[in-house]
C-alpha cells in the first residue's frame, strides 16, 4: 500500500466495526504521505454524516494518521490555542478512493494546556455489545488508549511543541 502524494487532495472515510460508513471528510490536503504516516490539513471542509446531514469544519486542522497505532489525532488551530480531538480507531488504509479507518467511539479531547477528557465511554460499551467487538480488539483499543495518553502526557508526536504549527505553516505554502 503506497501512501497518498504530498500536495494531493483526499477524502477521509470513517467506518464503524460493522462496516457501515460513519463519516466522510470531503477535502483534505496531504502534507506528508507514506505507507506508515499521513499528515493532512483542512479548513472549512465539508463533512457528511452517515444519516446524510452535512456540516463544515470551523477552523484549520492538521490530521495525523499512523498505520501502526489504533488512533488518529486532529489538531485544531483556534484563536486561544491548539485543541486536539483524538479518535480511537483502527490504523488507516489508503486506496484510490480515500484514506479509511474504523472509528471505535472512544475519543480524547485535549485542551491547549494539555489537560484532557476521555469521551464516549458509554457509546463504546454500547457499540461493543451491539457489534460484538472481539476481546482481542477491546484489548488492543485500550492498550492504544494508554499509548495515546502517554503521548499526551509526554508531549510526543503531534502533541510536541511546534508540531501542529509547523505543519500548518507547510499547509499555508500550498494555498
Quick recap:
Its cofactor is Mg(2+). The protein is an alpha+beta fold and 175 residues long.
Layout: helices, strands, pairs:
Layout lengths: L8 E7 L5 E13 L3 E6 L3 E4 L4 E3 L4 E6 L4 E8 L2 E9 L3 E2 L4 E12 L5 E4 L1 H10 L4 H20 L8 H12 L1
Parallel strand pairs: 1-10
Antiparallel strand pairs: 1-2, 2-3, 2-4, 3-6, 4-5, 6-7, 7-8, 8-10, 9-10, 10-11
GO molecular function: magnesium ion binding; nucleoside diphosphate phosphatase activity; ribonucleoside triphosphate phosphatase activity
Function: Has nucleoside phosphatase activity towards nucleoside triphosphates and nucleoside diphosphates.
EC number: 3.6.1.15, 3.6.1.6
How would you describe what is shown here?
Has nucleoside phosphatase activity towards nucleoside triphosphates and nucleoside diphosphates. InterPro entries: DUF402 (IPR007295), FomD-like_sf (IPR035930), Ntdp-like (IPR050212), SA1684 (IPR016882). Its cofactor is Mg(2+). By secondary structure, the chain is an alpha+beta fold. It has one domain: FomD-like (FomD barrel-like fold). The chain is 24% helix and 42% strand. It contains three helices and eleven strands. It has helices spanning 121-130, 135-154, 163-174, and strands at 9-15, 21-33, 37-42, 46-49, 54-56, 61-66, 71-78, 81-89, 93-94, 99-110, 116-119. The protein has a seven-stranded mixed beta barrel with strand order 1-2-3-6-7-8-10. A hairpin with a 4-residue loop joins strand 9 (93-94) and strand 10. The longest helix is centred in the last third of the chain and has 20 residues, at 135-154. The two termini are 28 Å apart. The mean pLDDT is 97.
